[in-house]
Design goal:
single chain; 168 residues; alpha+beta; six-stranded antiparallel sheet; 14% strand; elongated
């Protein structure tokens, strides 16, 4: 009778094989992560443009509804009223609470300084502004719009919409 040798060799992966797999995963991640970040920035910028369109529509509606007041000069005026109260010229209910908070999808929203928003009634003009919360991470461009309804952008901070900006 022939005796068979019993094999005690365990099957598994060697350290070299595991290191190769980890290296391949790291290479794929190095390629994918920058694309993911660029996609997020593009999505944030598209959201900012959409929010400025919403603000333009809200301003026109506000001006039409409250002609003695003119255009709104703050986001709070365009926001929804407190629960149980009706809409008015101080809380028109034209934009959602996210946009009314001033920060949405990586962008900060505010109104550009306008001479007509310094207490003159009715306010005859407005200018809205969107800036990235963290430049290079949440967005690359600054956006603005005014009574013309044209949304514009610039690579740096905008002080007046239309002077150093480019229409979209």
């Amino acid at each position: 009778m022939k005796k068979h040798k019993k094999q005690n060799k365990k099957r598994g992966f060697s350290l070299i094989e595991l290191l190769i797999v980890v290296a391949i995963i790291l290479i794929i991640a190095a390629i994918a992560i920058p694309n993911l970040l660029r996609s997020r920035i593009a999505a944030n910028e598209a959201s900012a443009v959409g929010s400025l369109r919403t603000l333009n529509t809200a301003e026109i509606t506000y001006n039409t509804t409250y002609p003695s007041v003119g255009f709104a000069c703050t986001l709070g005026v365009l926001a929804s009223p407190a629960s149980g109260t009706s809409v008015s010229s101080s809380n028109a209910g034209l934009i959602d609470s996210n946009l009314a908070s001033g920060v949405k999808s990586g962008y900060s929203f505010s109104f550009l300084t306008s001479p007509s928003c310094t207490g003159n009634t009715p306010a005859s003009a407005y200018g809205t502004y969107a800036s990235p919360v963290t430049l290079g991470t949440t967005g690359q461009r600054y956006f603005c719009s005014d009574t013309s309804g044209v949304i514009q952008y610039a690579a740096s901070t905008i002080s007046t919409c239309g002077t150093s900006t480019t229409p979209i």
